[in-house]
Amino acid sequence: MKQFAGLVTRAPTLCLLLALCLAIPFLIQLPRIQTVDNVDYFTVEDDPDVAFYQSIKETFGEDEFFVIAFSSPDLFTPPLLRMIAAITRELETIPEVREVQSLANVDYIHGEEEYFEVRPFLERIPEDAAELTALKEQALGNPLYVGNLVSADGETTALVVFPIIPDASDGSFRKRLIRQAETILSAHEGLAGRFHLAGWTMTNFSLSQYMKSDVAVFIPVTYLFITLTIWLFFRNVRLTLLALANISMCTGATMGLFPLLGITLNNVTTIVPPLVMALALADSVHIFAHLDKKLLDQARSPAKAMERILQRVITPCFLTSLTTAVGFISLVVSDIPPIKEFGYVASAGMIFEFLFSFLLLPPLMLMCRPDGIYTHQRKDIGMGAFLGRLSTVVQAHARPITIFITILTLGALWAASTIRVETNLLEYFKPSSPLRQELSYIEPRLSGVGTVDISVKAGERDALRDPAKLAVIDRLQTFALTLPGVDRTMSFVDFLKDMNMSFHNENPDFYVIPESRELVSQYLLLYDSDDMDEFITPEYDQARILIRLSEHSSAGQATIIDSLRAFIDQHEHDGLQIRVTGRAVQDVNTIDALVRGQVESLALAAAVITFIMFLALRSFVAGALSLIPNAFPIIINFGIMGLLGIPLNTSTALISVVALGIAVDDTIHFLTEYNRKRAENLPMREALQQSILDKGTAICASSLILVIGFGVLLFSSFVPTMSFGGLSAVIMITALIGDLIVLPAAMLSFDGKSA
């Protein structure tokens, strides 16, 4: 490392050219960076439940939909009914639409004794008040409509739109679909008032749009805050510009990896730019902190002075880059592609950060006038005076501080035990967000837009014409409706029960499964509609039960899924193969895989980083001591999450691994300096005090920069990103406390015997 530092100062032009040659291949890729208009990528790789869900969609068609709803006390009047019919026809012309279901095109089963017919519900729009009243009563009396196409009070109606899902290469089809639908609806707002849209199509698109708005905010705001921070700490325009040049090169090269690796900007990888910017600046700060004119005078030349500075910081900076990269690369054990991609790109960013901090920044600094960047650094005023007083307090009260920290840590561990593991998709959005307001409007009036499916498979053709097997499906639906968060269910059986009621002169007592296989076959022969196609195969050997959910919490959805599975396991199925599947199962599995993966990543990162610390510090005791200030912020973070009721979810699960890799950085700088002082035969207390004075300013500056880097994420429109940023910023503060207070106090509490 020291030889490398000498090379940089002896051949600065060569190193500068080398840095540019390294950066250019990546920088030219920046225009090719792609964002996506969907979040379809957030699934578990090689998950058998995902594969089975895909097979169900291939059998019954894609189940994605979104709901367009509006309300009016005059819903069943000719103008509004004509408008529903017009909107339905116009939506069906959109190329991305597979099907639209509404009161205007749904089929209606009307019967008399021993006979029924299937006709369009809105076969014609009546003008007579009595006929309109009868039409409304028919709609509200049909279980297939209520909660799906019309509210129970008859004042809200829905048009359910099913998109055509193209191949994965066309990620913007939802954007096109929604824009065209909004254009159509805008022409009818004068009559209907406001339209409300909700469903997975809308949620998926909204997530991607928030991601894009975050990217537009994060980078400029990070630049602004970092510029202000550098200026406040060093009050030097040249150093501020040099730091900006370095972080720009690091961030640009890192982002250039995205198109080369086929990675897109998504809701996880958007964190990379502000993160790399903050970490790149941290190394710059450690270099800047040694720009003392006394050193320049002693070295007699700027190149020699720079060489001494680099020799002093290059090893700890290399170790910090290495340990941070280890923290990030440990994420690749995840089964979730975006997490894995984040691990690859962020760890590569740490390599760029180290290389550019020592190949690009020092040559640029040597091009500046020494008087313009070197300053007289005094340790008896300002930050130096504060650090001196802090060191005195810590040394005077080491044992009480250690006892207090121990109690605080134990309390945090207890609080951490109360953390819930869940992701609530609704709470991903701020209460003021349009999507959340739309959901809050639609779900109480109609049904939830979340879905769970149950696949019911028989072993032979026409098996699902048997009333005994149909009764199994009916029992499953009845049980599902008893579960909190389940709003309605639909299956092939509902259509048969409706036929049976119509066959018996619309007598509600006959809204039951037909009593014989022959009667079922007779009904199916009379029924002339394709409305059942998404619930039963043409061979009548496989059926699908659709369950609509208003439960958005992954923990609540997991409870529903577990209850359904338990019911299936505890009851006889008459030879049927029954399996719970659907989007909710996929999402719950993703959360489980995410948390499991983060535990594995944290264990892997902790083991590798600990091993690196033991080797780097060449001391078992020093390596063990380094664990104290790094475990402390993570434990406190989990304690805060427990106290504030913040769940472990798709964003907060990432924090520990990321924080461990970053928090160890300042510990390395501190202990490396401490070991150097001890090697000079300084007593322990004096070595600690000198280490705090020599490294404290840079540690405080780099911690503040990281707080700002993570704090920028609070500007996100996306609640998980805000949580990630806020909690990570808190970890950086507690890590600073761990390095400057907890670690020295712990070392002093052993009276120097362990150091």
From TrEMBL:
GO terms for cellular component: plasma membrane. InterPro entries: MMPL_dom (IPR004869), Mycobact_MmpL (IPR050545), SSD (IPR000731). The chain crosses the membrane at residues 215-234, 241-265, 271-292, 313-336, 342-361, 398-416, 602-620, 692-715, 727-750. The keyword Zinc-finger does not apply. SUPFAM superfamilies: Multidrug efflux transporter AcrB transmembrane domain. Keywords: Cell membrane, Membrane, Transmembrane, Transmembrane helix. It comes from the Bacteria. Pfam families: MMPL. The keyword Transmembrane helix applies. Residues 239-367, 623-749 form the SSD domain. Its main location: membrane. It is found in: Cell membrane. It is a multi-pass membrane protein. This is SSD domain-containing protein. It comes from Desulfomicrobium norvegicum (strain DSM 1741 / NCIMB 8310) (Desulfovibrio baculatus (strain Norway 4)). The lineage of its organism: Bacteria, Pseudomonadati, Thermodesulfobacteriota, Desulfovibrionia, Desulfovibrionales.
